[in-house]
Model the fold of this input.
Amino acid sequence: MKQETLTVEQFRALAEKQKSGKGKKKSKYHAEKYGGYDSKKEYYRAQQLKLWFNSGLISDLREQVAYLLIPSHINSEGVEEKPVKYIADFVYVDNDTGQTVVEDTKGYRTPDYIIKRKLMLHVHGITIKEI
Done:
């Protein structure tokens, strides 16, 4: 099979065309960013929680809250292992119960998420509410 060769100009034109394309990396699970959120589902949930917050049903509404699951440490080869964190989509206080709620909007439960969900319960005693 004969291999085609490109001129420098053709290569640059092709590289520029790819670079100037959409510029967005497709989500592995086909979720599209929407309204500044990672998915339409997360966007609509945020709008609902903001309404609840404004009506006084919930308080202390926060988004993208990080929880440390495993701290960084140096392994036996002297290389630093990075920390493991879980980032909750939403955290708020339910004013009826006084309980803090940690929420994650899920379209698909990845293996990484499942492990982090279990670590949240083990390390912090927090059960994540999946929406």
The chain has a mean pLDDT of 90.
